[in-house]
């Protein structure tokens, strides 16, 4: 019964978060371009996306005559589902994780990839030239960027020796059972805080983190990798024929996906629910800001900051060209991520 | 760290799938049923920037995309096999390290060949 309530709570929270994220994105872009953004609906336009979703629910559900009816219906469900499945395996706070499975990392990598099938289904079933082109580009991009992401995650797994996400989180703070070192020299089990995070435990994990972050931008089809949805050339990519609530589901899934990849990055690299504040002598900041409630606060707060960085990147950088994006992945990111993995292996053998 | 999970650990995932599926499918069916239905032949045509539809969208796609797909399958399968090795890295020790990096070296030699062959040149 408790599990059931928690599942519903997580789905509701993420859906609500996605609505607010759409609003936040519009506000962030507005401030970056010296505009005001949505202002009319509610204070600071806070209810703008709620109004939008109510409008979308009322709209006529248009299915083009040339479309493949069944696949056209299944595609948004699959995209939505693949994103929400991922949240079940993420650690929420100290001692609590919905699904405490020993293959957590594996499960997440598998679930995140299911979205590709949904996107290809959406593009194919629409029978629209723009949609098909957008989905083919999207699939080529997502599957290419998955390889550096998976290898970057592998270098973390090698240091931890576990695929359980709760174990991985535990090793990045004051609750760590094994000795942990800041940059391999300074023992930080009692200090905790940000020096205990994975990106500071070994310097090459910082590079691995950047590889994962870049790849996660590409997996969410976010700028500078938003060529699948490039409005100026292929209108809106794979969701061009979607209207009403089906469009809303695809849109919510996109923002929920941003949160999911941010949360995975936070758990693997940025300490998960561990506090960023270290113990400094008698000022035991890490001890004071650790606990069940603080854990929820820190993991959600850190993930939100990551989402904000994704938005910031989107409104700062221009779009890559398709060939640049593919050669950047295959010729730069994949060799560098293998290099990270090699350093991880040597680090594990020599330093720890 | 050898905690083996039992099938019941996957139960919350099933619940989460059901909750998400219930929400999205129900809302989709409901909006389909209660929404307005004013269908005309022109409205249900595919969008092509206002001009009449020209032929079928499902035209042949450049073979370069399939090449990327095949490379993905190759690399991803190899990387998936590295995960069990990475978890047990400490037990395998130096010998395991050498064995795996000979394998990765061969894989990277393959990548080098693919790049030199021009399979990833998109211009």
Question: How far is the first residue's CA from the last residue's CA of chain B?
Answer: 49 Å
* Mean pLDDT figure of chain A: 83
Order of helices and strands of chain A: HHHEEHHHEEHHHHEEHHH
Largest sheet of chain A: 2 strands, antiparallel
CATH class of chain B: Mainly Alpha
Beta strands of chain B, count:
0
Based on CA atoms alone, the radius of gyration of chain A comes out at 21 Å
Query: For the CA atoms, what is the radius of gyration of chain B?
Result: 25 Å
**Biggest protein-protein contact in the assembly:** A-B, 84 and 71 residues
Query: Which CATH architecture of chain B would you pick?
Result: Up-down Bundle
Helical fraction of chain A: 55-70%
Helix content class of chain B: 55-70%
Describe the overall structure.
The complex is a heterodimer of chains A (352) and B (123). Chain A is mainly alpha-helical. Chain A is built from 13 helices and 6 strands. Chain A is globular and about 65 Å long. Chain B is mainly α. Chain B has a single domain (7-50, 59-117), classed as Methane Monooxygenase Hydroxylase, Chain G, domain 1. In chain B, 63% of the residues lie in helices and 0% in strands. Chain B has 3 helices and no strands. Chain B has helices spanning 11-34, 63-87, 89-117. In chain B, 14% of the residues are buried. At the A-B interface, helix 1, helix 3, helix 4, helix 5 and helix 10 of A face helix 1, helix 2 and helix 3 of B.
